[in-house]
DNA sequence: TGAAAAGTATGATGATCATAATATTATATG
DNA sequence: CATATAATATTATGATCATCATACTTTTCA
C-alpha cells in the first residue's frame, strides 16, 4: 500500500463526521456531495472511491450519527442511581445548550420528520435508536419501582423529542426557554423524580 | 376583465392546496415548482404570475396549511365540556388515521424539524400556530380546574407532536401503534381526564 | 363579431447537482 | 532513488430545477 494503510479509513470517518453535522444543520436531503467533501477538506472527485452512491452515503452518515451521542451518555450511567441518571438526562436533553448545538446532540429530533422518506436501512436504524433509548429509560424507571416502565418510557421519550423540536422551531428565545422548562418540570414530576408540587 | 374575476384567485387557491399537500408529503424544501403546478393541472409557466418567488410561495403555502386543520376542530368545540373535547382531541391526534393521512392533518409535526430553516415569515407563522394550539388546550385545562394550565398544555403539546412524529417514523406497524397508544393513555392520565389506573 | 387583455403554455437559460472518466499527487517499498 | 499504486483532484456529462421571455388561449366588452 502507498499512503499508510489507515489513510482512507480516516478520510472516510472525517467525511462521515462532516456529513453527520451537515445533516443536523441542513437535513438529510438538502445535503450535497460536493459540499460535504469540501467541509472535509477534499474535492468531490474522490467521493465515489468511498461510497457507492449518495443514498448509501446518507445511510452510512445516519448510522454514524447514532454512534456516540447523548444515548451513549445515558447508557454510561447505567449503574448510577436511577433517579439521578434520569434527572440529569432530562436536564441535559431539554437544556438550552442541547437545543442550540445545531451540529451535535441526539439524532432522533433531527431525523424525525424525514425518517419516513429515508431508505429502508436508515428507517431501521432510526427505529433501532428509538427502541434502544426507550429501553434504557425504561430500565431506569423500572429500577425506581415504577409500574409499566416501558409504557412510561415511550411516553416520556415522545415528550423529550417533541419539546426539543418545538423549542428549536420557536424563534422567540424566551418562549423557547419556556417550552423546555415546562417539559423539564412536568417530565420529572410525572415520572416521580421529584416531590409533587 | 377577461376570464371571470375569480378565476385567478381560484387557481391560486388550488395551487396552494396542492402545495400544502406536497409539503406534507415531501417537506418544504424538496418541493418543485413544476411538480406543484402539474398537480394543480397547470404547467410551470404561469407560476410567476401568482407568486413572486419560490420562497414567498412556500411561505404562502405554509400559512395555508394552518388554515383549517385539526386546531380548528378543537376550537370548534370550545363551548363543549372540556373533558370530552380534550379526550376527543387526543384520541384523534394520536390515532392511526391521523398518523397515516400523509396529505392532511396538523401542520406542526410536518414542519417541526424544518422550521428553523424556513423564512422568517414562516417561522413566525409556525410559532403562532404553536402558541394558538397551546392556548386552546390551556383554556380547556383551566376549565377543568387544573392549576398551571398553560404549563401543562405546553408539556402536553410537546408529547402530542413528539408521539405522532415518532409513530410516523417507526416502520413497524405494531410498534408504531404502541407509541400512539402509550402516549394516548399517559396524556389522558396525567391531564386528569380519566381515573388514575 | 372582433380586438384587447387576463390567464396560461411553450420553450429557453443559467445554476446546481450526482455521477463518472481520466489525470495527478503522494508515499511505501524495492 | 525510482517506481508502482493507492488516494485524491480535474474535468466532463446529463439531469433537474428556478426563473423568465415570449407565444398562445380564453373570455369579456365595444
Low-confidence stretches of chain A: none
Q: In angstroms, what separates the terminal alpha carbons of chain A? A: 66 Å
Globular, elongated, flat, extended or rod-shaped: what is the shape of chain A?
Answer: elongated
- Give the helix tally of chain A: 11
Strand content of chain A: under 5%
CATH superfamily of the largest domain in chain A: Tetracycline Repressor, domain 2
Secondary-structure element sequence of chain A?
HHHHHHHHHHH
Question: What is the CATH architecture assignment of the largest domain in chain A?
Answer: Orthogonal Bundle
The helix content of chain A, as a percent range, equals 55-70%
Q: What's the number of structural domains of chain A?
A: 2
CATH class of the largest domain in chain A: Mainly Alpha
The number of E-state strands of chain A comes to 0
Q: What's the story with the biggest beta sheet of chain A?
A: none
Which class do the helix and strand fractions of chain A yield?
mainly alpha
| Quaternary structure type | homodimer
Largest interface: A-B, 51 and 52 residues
Task: Give the topology.
The structure is a homodimer of 197-residue chains.
Chain A: H1 7-26, H2 33-39, H3 47-50, H4 54-66, H5 70-76, H6 82-93, H7 96-100, H8 107-111, H9 120-143, H10 149-169, H11 173-190
Helix pairs in contact in A: 1-4, 4-9, 6-9, 9-10, 10-11
The first copy, chain A, binds a DNA duplex (30 and 30 nucleotides) through residues 1-4, 7-8, 11, 32-34, 42-49, 53-54.
Amino acid at each position: 500500500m502507498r499512503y499508510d494503510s489507515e489513510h482512507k479509513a480516516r478520510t472516510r470517518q472525517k467525511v462521515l463526521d462532516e456529513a453527520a453535522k451537515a445533516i443536523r444543520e441542513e437535513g438529510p436531503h438538502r445535503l450535497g456531495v460536493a459540499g460535504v467533501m469540501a467541509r472535509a477538506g477534499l474535492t468531490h472527485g474522490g467521493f465515489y472511491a468511498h461510497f457507492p452512491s449518495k443514498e448509501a452515503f446518507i445511510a452510512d452518515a445516519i448510522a454514524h450519527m447514532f454512534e456516540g451521542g447523548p444515548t451513549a451518555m445515558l447508557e454510561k450511567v447505567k449503574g448510577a442511581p436511577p433517579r439521578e441518571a434520569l434527572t440529569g438526562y432530562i436536564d441535559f436533553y431539554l437544556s438550552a445548550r442541547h437545543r442550540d448545538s445545531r451540529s451535535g446532540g441526539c439524532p432522533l429530533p433531527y431525523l424525525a420528520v424525514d425518517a419516513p422518506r429515508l431508505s429502508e436501512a436508515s428507517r431501521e436504524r432510526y427505529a433501532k435508536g428509538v427502541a434502544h433509548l426507550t429501553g434504557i429509560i425504561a430500565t431506569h424507571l423500572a429500577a425506581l419501582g415504577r409500574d409499566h416502565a416501558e409504557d412510561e418510557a415511550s411516553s416520556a421519550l415522545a415528550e423529550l423529542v417533541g419539546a426539543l423540536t418545538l423549542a428549536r422551531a420557536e424563534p422567540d428565545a424566551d418562549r423557547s426557554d419556556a417550552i423546555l422548562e415546562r417539559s423539564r418540570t412536568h417530565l420529572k414530576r410525572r415520572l416521580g423524580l421529584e416531590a409533587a408540587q
